[in-house]
Structure formats: C-alpha cells, structure tokens
From TrEMBL, chain A:
EC number: 2.4.-.-
Membrane topology annotation: Single-pass type II membrane protein
Principal subcellular localisation of the protein: Golgi
Annotated region described as Disordered, given as residue ranges: 1-36, 468-508
Protein family per UniProt: Belongs to the glycosyltransferase 43 family.
Cellular component GO terms, alphabetical: Golgi membrane
Keyword vocabulary terms for this entry: Cell wall biogenesis/degradation, Glycoprotein, Glycosyltransferase, Golgi apparatus, Membrane, Signal-anchor, Transferase, Transmembrane, Transmembrane helix
Organism: Rhynchospora pubera
Bilayer-crossing regions: 48-67
Protein name, UniProt field: Glycosyltransferases
GO biological process, one term: glucuronoxylan biosynthetic process
Alphabetized InterPro entries for the sequence: Glyco_trans_43, Nucleotide-diphossugar_trans
From TrEMBL, chain B:
Topology term for the membrane: Single-pass type II membrane protein
Lineage per the UniProt record: Eukaryota, Viridiplantae, Streptophyta, Embryophyta, Tracheophyta
UniProt domain Exostosin GT47: residue ranges: 47-341
Keywords: Glycosyltransferase, Golgi apparatus, Signal, Signal-anchor, Transferase, Transmembrane
Protein name in UniProt: Exostosin family protein
Organism: Rhynchospora pubera
Pfam families assigned: Exostosin_GT47
Any one GO BP annotation for this protein: plant-type secondary cell wall biogenesis
Length: 508, 414
C-alpha cells in the first residue's frame, strides 16, 4: 500500500514543515519585539501550508472523499503505477515536490475519467519490456475503475439475451425433458355468460404457454355465439368450435350433467376425426399449472391426477369445525389414492357433507358450489383409446364409446368409460402433487355485460342511481351540483333570501 | 472390389471427424480435445512411476493434525495428492526405477483464526524439507530437483506470499528453480509462473457440490450470475487495487441491469442458482484464479473469465477458449454487449462441452480417486513431460543451485 503511505508521509511532511516553520520563526528572532515581526514574516510559508491544508480539508468535506490521491493520479500517473524494485525510494521524493503545485479542480466524479492512468502505465510497461526486463503486460498497482457513460441496459441487447435464454431452455427440454412429446387435445365445455371472458382468457393464456402442440375443442352450449367465437379467434391457439344444441340450464345439478354430455360430444369428434394425442378435460373456470402438461405426457392409456377442490361460498359464513375435523382437517383434493408400493387402490373424493344444507342450487347463487363425485378434469387418456378400430395394444378394459350413453343414462365420470378402474395410472407422484384446481365462480344467470366487452356506443346514463340530483328531491343535504342545478329545477317553495346566501358568486 | 474402394475413404473420413471432435448432433455432450490431443481420459498407470519420499511426520501429518481445517479449504489439494499417491498404482517403492519424485510437505496449512493460510513460514518449511531429502537420498543432488515435483497451491505458488508485489519481489524459491511445480496460480509472463509448471484447479469439495445438484431439466433462467465481493473493504476500501478494479467496474456498470444477477450475498442456494444460470462470472480477485471456475464447470454454467493473461488448469488438455468466454479487463464495461452478441450455436456448443462428464471429472479431487479426475490429470501432465532430457543429470561436482539465496529470514532452520 505504498501509495497511501506516500500521501500520508507527504501530509505529515507538510504539517511538520509548517510547525517547523513556526518554531523556526520563534527561535530565530532573538527579541520579543522582533518575535512578533519574525512570526509575521516567517509564517508566509507555514500559513500557506496551513491554508492549503485547510482548503484541502474543506474540499474533501464537500466532495465526500479524500481527493488528494486523485490529484496525484492525474498529475503524476506515469511514475506511480508500475511496480519495479527501484522506484520505491524515488516515489516519496516526487511526492513532496508535488505539494508546491497548484491543483486543478476537476468536477467530474473520481472514477469516470480514470482510464488515463492505466494507459500510461501500459505504455511504461511497454517501454520496460523493450528494455529487456520481462515484465508482464498486466501491471500491479492501483488501476482505475472503468465505468461507461450510460451504465444501463440496452433494450435490443436485453431482447437478444432473452432469445438466448429461450433457445437454451428449448435445448434443455430437448435433452432432459419429455423425450417424444405427444400433442394435446383439450376439451372445454363453455357457454356465453358474464364470467366467460374471465375464465376463457385465463385458459387461453395457459394453453398458449404449453410447449407442446395443442388442439382445443371448445363445445358451446346453445350453439355457436359471436362472444365465444371472437374470444377464440383472438386466442392464437388452434381450436375447433363445436356447437351443442341445448341451452345451458340454470341449476347446478343440471349444468353438471349437460357439461358431461358436451364432453362426450367432444370425445365423439375426436373419434370421428381419428385425432391423435393425449386428451385432457380443461373446464374454463379451472386453473392449471404448466407442470400438469409435462406430467400427463407420461400417460400410457388412462391416467388420473389430483384436483384441488376450491369450493367456496359467496358469503362469509364460517362453518365451525368439529373437534374431529380440527384434528384431521378435510383436505379439498380429489384424486387417486395409492398404497405404499405406488399402486392405485382407490380414490380421494371431496367431502361435501359439511355443505349439504348450504350448497347452491342455481347458478349465481351466493352459496357454496359443490363439485361432482369425480371431476372429469382429473382424468387424462390416450386418444387412441376411443378410436373406432381396435388399435394394437388397446386394452380390453376400455368400453366402446358408442355404447356409452346409448340407453340415455347419464355419464357421471370418465370411469364409466372403462370396465375396470384399477387399470387407471396415477400421475403426479401418485396423486401427491396437485397441479390443477377446480373452482366455480359465476354471476347470476340474468346479469348483463357489454357484448364482446366493448363499450360501444359510449355509455349514457339511462337508469338513474339512487342519489342522482336531477330528480325532484327535497334533500337539502345535497352537494354543490344540487345547488347548481337549482337554476334549472328550482322548486318554488325555496325562499330567495336563502339562495342569496348560498350562492354568492353566481350570476343570476 | 467396388465396395471396398469406397469403404476405405469413408473410414478415413470417420476417423478424421472423430479426431477433431466435431459435434455428434445426436449427443448432448461433445468430446474435448486440447492442444495435446484427446488426453483427458488417458490412464497414467504404466506411463510413469512416482517415488514418494518418507518425510518425518512434522512435515505433513502433524501439520494437518494441528489444524484439520486444511482438509476443506481450497488449498487442500496438496494433502489429498499425498494420500492419493500413497495408494496409487503409479507409486513405486524402488527409487531407482522412478521417473518422478514427490515430496509430501504441506506448506499451506498454517491458518489464521479466520482460516486464511499464512505463508510466512512456508519458505523455511520447504527449504527444510529439501535439505532433508538431499541429505538422506542421493536423487535430489543427482539432478538438483529436475525430476522432482512439488505441490504449491497457494495464491502465488512458490513465491509464498499473498500480496502480489511482495510475491514478485521474492520470486520463486531459489531451491525450486529446477523442479516441476504443480500450482493453482497461472499468469503469462509472471515471475511466479515457471515454464513447465502444471496448473491445477483449486480444491472444491465434491460431496458438497453433489449434494446440491438439481434436475437438469430445470430451465436456465438467469442470464449472468455472480456472488462475491466487488470492493475488498478491509484492505482496499476505495477500489482500484483489488482485482485491478475489474470487480468494482462490474458492480458500477451492471448493478442496475436485470440480466445480471450479481451481489455480495452468501445465499444457501448458491450452487442451485448456478445451475439455473447461463453464464457465471469468474473475475480475478487478489489472485487471478478462483474456485468459481470449478463450480461453473461442474454445474454446467459457462464461465466468463475476466483475468488478463491467466493460464487455466490443464491448459494443454482442455481447450478453454472453446469452453469459456474470455473478456479482457478493459472490456468489462461492455460485458453485456459482448455476451449478448455471442452466436447462439456457439453458446449451445459450449454447453455441450461442459456437459461432458470427463470435463467435470477433470476439475474435481474426489476421495477415493476416480478415473479422469484431477489427480489423474496431474499424473498425465507429468507423464507428458517424460522422458527426461539427459541434460538434467548433473556431472559430479557440478552445482547450479544457490542454497543461500533469498531473504535472510528464509535461511532459518525449521
């Protein structure tokens, strides 16, 4: 740290020379009278040092750091930065000389222009190497800290970095992800209502982020509507819009059954077109995690995942948990249950007993909406399972799709598609990982919303709100608006004197 | 005959492509071959013989016994190399047939309470050890140490000082002038790097790194990652001295850049984060080498080396320019431009090279030793220097080493 030592020594030298000067002045003048004269002449050098020192201190205080080193850096850079064994003694001598020079005050911050010292250091080292001493081009000592004038990110570079990251992740998926990913076929029953845009937008964005090819079969109750069609057209997901010629009923129980029939229609479409891939039932109000799509690639024929059931009530009713329930709180998950060796032994279902009195019966009622016994969204299967021609390898425990629903019975869950439910594969670490959530939030069936959620033409107030003042109201606790409008709707019962007091600035 | 006429050229083509390590597009790794050829997986057994001197325990076992922290710090290679050689197949008990002689002296095990090694006694320890072997065996005097090798993993190798100016002033210990030095420090045209030295990676605990592995399909979402000091506030508060100002420059230029995840924190998820990053910075500190290189290689994060003229471990076996990114210290302010302008296929190729398990193995010192690890690379390096030139054997009476050279303090017996 010879640099710091040097400056300290030189400052000490300054101080000592200043004090020496004073003492010299005191001793040098023999008489007391001339002592004052002597001390008035002598201090020209010592007071100069003192003033210099004081000025340096003030400037350092102002700048916030000891700038003396900066001065040495800028003025005498070529002798300070290279280390050789010979210059240790000479450096201190040059330091004391520099104190006599008046320093230029630079207003630039200390670090920015410090590229200079390094260059001169390198030049010197070049000279040294030419002289035959095998010095490395890299120089020991204090170097400047290089900062570019605008140390902020450049947007094009940021985009390039993101593309690099994207490509790296694609490569990672190629080598470490799913080996031969199969396309997905997603079946969603929907119908036009207030909350449709909310639910479908979420699902569209989720499907857009899935890294596998997706074909989306949207079955709409009540036929094809412009609402749904416009949402799908903007979705940038490959879709099939299938009409279902029945209107969606208002009761929840009926709605569940209709949705089941809509899903079966979707399955028939797959069967007709011999579409290949993995079939997944995504209800428009469910929320999916992207891990789900990676996990279901593992399915062979039919698999089952755990669904988190988020049954909520419209209002803040608090069902008091019984003691028993407090110890074993009910887990709102529906899915496969396995034994210790990982084989499917049964199903967890949602316990709907606490809600039995208070569940909602029609859509939009502010009460808890209950799921069915087994939600369709918790099951995925290979599309080849429902193809007409018996494919090789298609297991015998699968029922033929045409035979289902023939006699008009209702299909409650996909387990009706199979003869033997024990062949279903439990996915997601045997159901321990919950990757999608079931939720039902709907507005009242008669609630209105702007078509396409576009407000056109601009809104006019056609229905007055309760406190609108342009109705003949006798409330005197009105706002200034009310007072302004008295010009137009002025009841004759008001006295003119009152008006004068309340409206001082108004032109009458 | 018609078939055979095109089989031969095809075979030649195959061999040619294999030799130059062109990417097999079906694999997610790529073979590594440096300037010495495809030597990472060579087996040193049978190519050389090493004789291990039996030194009194005060030179090795007792030192470690006094402070077992030496087994975990980044200079632990000297201890583990000794243990490896004792049970290795290259060891010979007959010194007459040995190609190389190893002196097990632990010079980097005098630790401060904080765990940093003090080098002040190391020259005396080394000198004392050499005196011991030269008086008890004739092999040192035969060549004055030209067929001996020593492990000196400290900051500036055999200069035995942590401060660069003092280290340069001391120079390499005069007694080691002819011996082969195996060290972590490597910088071109530097006093403390002797020609013919073997550069090794610093010791990083393999089990600790293995314990923090995450699945390789975790997507890499951090662009540039670094954790460490930018200003060494204790020794160089204003900056400019530490790391030649390069680390301070990194901080000042990129602290506001969201692509750069750099800070001085010590997170517990350090290893996991490296596995989620594309580039890991390896700037110089007080010395140019750093364990970050080893960590970057093991975790598949492309090392960005910011240290002018550095010589990296096993540089003849590993083509570092193809694996890492080298940035000059003066170019640090433009680091973001440099990194984002690297073509994507170059980046993918670097990741393929890093994914090669022999690359990761070559950087580690596992116990017990495994084929292809750093111990074997050191032996391969020594084997590549064989056969010894006849001129190393001194004529009787010929002496070139000055046993009294160096600072007075070094001459005191230990």
């Amino acid at each position: 740290m010879f640099h710091s030592h040097g400056t300290r020594r030189s400052n000490a030298a300054a101080r000592s020379s200043a004090s020496g000067g004073l003492e010299g002045g005191g001793v040098g003048s023999p008489a007391a009278s001339s002592a004052s004269e002597g001390s008035s002449f002598r201090p020209s050098a010592s007071t100069f040092w003192l003033l210099l020192h004081g000025l340096c201190c003030l400037i350092s205080l102002f700048l916030g750091f000891r700038f003396s080193r900066l001065i040495f850096v800028l003025l005498f850079s070529n002798t300070i930065y290279t280390y050789t064994t010979t210059t240790t003694t000479t450096i201190t001598s040059t330091r004391t000389e520099t104190l006599t020079v008046s320093f230029p005050l630079t207003h630039t911050p200390p670090i920015e222009t410090a590229v200079k010292p390094n260059n001169s250091a390198l030049e010197l080292s070049d000279k040294m190497s030419n002289q035959g001493s095998s010095h490395s081009q890299v120089v020991v000592g204090r170097h400047g800290i290089r900062i570019r004038p605008w140390p902020h990110p450049d947007p094009t570079e940021v985009m390039r970095a993101h593309r690099i990251i994207e490509r790296v992740q694609q490569e990672q998926r190629k080598w470490y992800g799913v080996k031969s990913p199969r396309p997905l076929i997603v079946i969603t029953p929907t119908y036009a209502r207030t909350f449709q845009a909310l639910h479908l937008t979420g699902l569209i964005h989720c499907l857009r982020n899935v890294p596998y090819p997706v074909t989306w079969i949207v079955v709409e109750a009540g036929g094809v509507t412009n609402e749904t069609a416009s949402l799908l057209a903007r979705s940038r997901v490959q879709f099939l819009h299938i009409p279902f010629h029945e209107k969606m009923p208002v009761e929840w129980a009926e709605r569940h059954l209709t949705e089941n029939r809509m899903r079966l229609l979707g399955l028939r479409v797959i069967r007709e077109r011999n579409m290949d891939g993995i079939v997944l039932f995504a209800d428009d109000s469910n929320v999916h995690s992207l891990d789900l799509f990676d996990e279901i690639q593992k399915v062979q024929w039919m698999g089952s995942v755990s669904v988190g059931i988020l049954a909520h009530s419209g209002g803040p009713d608090r069902t008091l948990l019984t003691e028993d329930e407090k110890l074993n709180p009910p887990i709102p998950v529906q899915g496969p249950a396995c034994n210790s060796s990982g084989h499917l032994i049964g199903w967890h279902t949602f316990n709907s007993i606490p809600y039995s009195e208070k569940s909602a019966t029609f859509v939009g009622e502010s009460a808890t909406v209950l799921p069915g016994k087994m939600e369709w969204s918790g099951f995925v299967f290979n599309a080849r399972m429902i193809w007409k021609e018996a494919e090789d390898g298609r297991p015998e425990w699968v029922k033929d799709l045409d035979k289902i629903g023939e006699n008009g019975e209702e299909i409650e869950s996909p387990l009706a598609l199979v003869n033997d439910a024990s062949f279903v594969e439990p996915l997601g670490d045997c159901g321990k990982k919950v990757m999608l959530w079931w939720m039902r939030v709907e507005a009242r069936a008669d609630s209105k919303f702007p078509p396409g959620w576009i407000i056109d033409p601009p809104l006019e107030i056609v229905v007055p709100a309760k406190r609108t003042p342009w109705q003949e109201s006798d409330d005197l606790a009105g706002s200034k608006l009310e007072q302004d409008d008295r010009r137009f709707t002025r009841p004759k019962s008001r006295s003119s004197s009152k008006r004068k007091n309340t409206l001082p600035g108004q032109d009458n | 005959m018609g078939v055979k006429s095109w089989i031969l050229p095809l075979l030649l083509l195959q061999i040619l492509f294999g030799k130059f390590g062109i990417a097999e597009l079906e694999q997610h790794t790529e073979r590594i071959s440096g300037s010495a050829g495809d030597v990472l997986e060579d087996d040193p057994v049978g190519r050389l013989k090493v004789f291990v001197y039996e030194l009194p325990l005060k030179y090795n076992k007792k030192i470690v016994g006094r402070d077992p922290r030496c087994l975990n710090h980044m200079f632990a290679a000297e201890i583990f190399m000794h243990r490896f050689l004792l049970t290795s197949a290259v060891r010979t008990l007959n010194p007459e047939e040995a190609d190389w002689f190893y002196t097990p002296v632990y010079t980097t095990c005098d630790l401060t309470p904080n765990g940093l090694p003090l080098p002040f006694k190391s020259p005396r320890v080394m000198r004392s050890a050499i005196q011991f072997i030269s008086t008890n065996w004739p092999y040192w005097n035969r060549t004055e140490g030209a067929d001996h090798f020593f492990l000196v993993p400290h900051d500036f190798g055999a200069c035995f000082h942590y401060q660069e100016e003092k280290a340069i002033q001391r120079g390499i210990l005069p007694l080691l002038k002819k011996a082969t030095l195996v060290q972590t420090f490597g910088q071109e045209n530097h006093v403390c790097l002797k020609e013919g030295s073997i550069i090794i990676p610093p010791y990083a605990p393999p089990q600790k790194m293995q314990a923090h592995m995450i699945t390789p399909d975790t997507p890499r979402s951090i662009f540039v990652y670094f954790r460490g000091l930018f200003y060494d506030v204790g020794n160089d508060p204003e900056g400019g001295y530490y790391a030649r100002g390069a680390r301070a420059s990194l901080w000042e230029n990129f602290k506001n850049n969201p692509l750069f995840d750099i800070s001085t924190e010590h997170p517990t998820t350090y290893y996991e984060d490296m596995q989620r990053a594309v580039f890991c910075l390896c700037p110089l500190g007080w010395a140019p080498w750093s364990p970050r290189l080893v960590e970057g290689v093991v975790f598949g994060c492309i090392p960005v080396i910011i240290a002018d003229d550095i010589v990296l471990p096993f540089a003849d076996a590993i083509p570092w320019e193809e694996i890492g990114v080298f940035v000059a210290e003066k170019d640090v302010p433009n680091l973001d431009t440099i990194l984002t302008n690297i073509p994507i296929d170059v980046i993918l190729r670097k990741q393929r090279l890093l994914a090669n398990p022999s690359m990761k193995q070559a950087m580690l010192f596992p116990q017990p030793a495994q084929p292809g690890d750093a111990f074997h690379q050191i032996l391969n390096g020594l084997a590549r220097k064989l056969p010894h030139d006849k001129s190393i054997y001194l004529k009787p009476g010929e002496r070139t080493l000055n046993w009294t050279a160096g600072p007075k303090g070094d001459l005191k017996p230990w």
